[in-house]
């Protein structure tokens, strides 16, 4: 494992995390709520995800084995995917503005956002973070990183389905039309 790309990714994810926490303030007041256990559970899964990605001590047994032969092209591609994924997540977060929440909630006067990345996928923040984690997993090149990706993929899929139900209940036919024209986590190839 090349230490320099891993170190750069740690810094990149750290900057992303600081940005994400910094812009979390100033949102609209929530109109709905979610169960008390959901948020701590998601934070725990995020902690496990990044521990698997960046802590070599999690590389026990098969988790510490390389997924493929080390290759500079794969490392470069992984780094580019990480940058692209983080950029997508930031773009989507900026587009949501004050309607963003890390919880599955509706804000007061909530609006259905259908512009920017939301014109292509309904959950571009999750898509971006998953793309970035997949890119990071390529750079890390251990099975522990693949487990981190799949764990987060399951978590975000469950959370996104909950959000879809909440938005469908609130926006009815407007949201169903949005569903017909956008993908869940990846863009729809045809309408």
Strand content: under 5%
**CATH fold label:** Four Helix Bundle (Hemerythrin (Met), subunit A)
Number of structurally distinct domains: 1
Unreliably modeled segments: none
Give the CA-based shape. globular
What is the tally of helical segments? Answer: 6
CATH-derived architecture: Up-down Bundle
Structure notes:
Helices cover 61% and strands 0% of the residues. By secondary structure, it is mainly α. It is globular, with a radius of gyration of 17 Å. The N and C termini lie far apart (42 Å).
Indicate the topology:
Blueprint: H1 3-22, H2 38-54, H3 72-96, H4 124-140, H5 143-171, H6 173-181
Helix pairs in contact: 1-3, 2-5, 3-4, 4-5, 5-6
What would you say about this model in short?
The protein has 191 residues and is an all-alpha fold. The chain has one domain (3-10, 47-100, 109-181): Four Helix Bundle (Hemerythrin (Met), subunit A). The protein starts with a helix and ends in a 10-residue tail after the last helix.
